[in-house]
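Tutorial handout. Part one gives the primary structure; part two gives the three-dimensional structure as tokens.
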Amino acid sequence: MSCSELKLGDLEIAVLEDIWHAGQGEARGVHARVGAVRGNSLQTIQSTLERLHRKGLLARERVSHAFVYTPTGSREAVLARLIEESLSRFSSGQEGGLMAAFAGYASQADPSLLDELEALIEHHKRRIGGDPS
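Part two.
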């Protein structure tokens, strides 16, 4: 992924989700699965795939007469980058408030997410402390 700030539009996110789900894709297939449903032309999908390639989110390889695109990173890695960029714009050295806001959001979305969040935090604490379990 490129080091510049990552900004993604709704269509870019839909195309990325499709590629992550399928593992790879070419413009015609992505258009059939995403573009046609949304009313986008094949050219719009091709442009979107090219933008995602330039942003470093998709790799491509020419196969016959078409490019086949594959993700360069996981969905989780892209989400982490988006969250990190958003948090850094608002943090102003007050990370505690941001963490409280995130925990509040998680509990409103689904209280069981707090349990998942707690387990993930413990997992990361162990990794930082050198415990591989």
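Part three, for discussion. The two ends are 29 Å apart (CA to CA). The CA atoms of residues 104 and 110 lie 10 Å apart.
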